[in-house]
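Work through this:
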Amino acid sequence: LQPILKRFLAEGLVSLPAVVYLQPAPPTKGSREEPSLGQISIKPAFASPSTLAQCADFLQGKAAEARARSAVIFVRKALIEYPCVWKEKRKQEWPFDAKADGLFMQCESHNDRVVYFTQLTESKGGVCSVGETVQLDPATFALMPRLFAT
């Protein structure tokens, strides 16, 4: 998250990615190299229900192929056309203004799943700031179907 927020502070809202990071399986016995972190751009995923389903299937396959232990999904709210999980929510569920922009972070593994939202703003003068981060209910606010079989 830190590199993404640092880039945002330097370059503004347009720099925010729609990306998934896959944590690789532990190195095999006798291997000298640590497996690299998988990074997959998913910007087109949030255009429609069908593109989201296709992306989820693709990511589930990649996670299985890599024997990934966990995944972290980062998506700027303004890039999401579907699913708009924040719409028509009570203030207790979604404590931000409906027009607030920011970054969703969905973290999951075989056993756990959490979703966070960090409000981000950019003034007309180009000054960027990081606002509040709130943990959200994954049953209500998950952007992507489960990537790991439970």
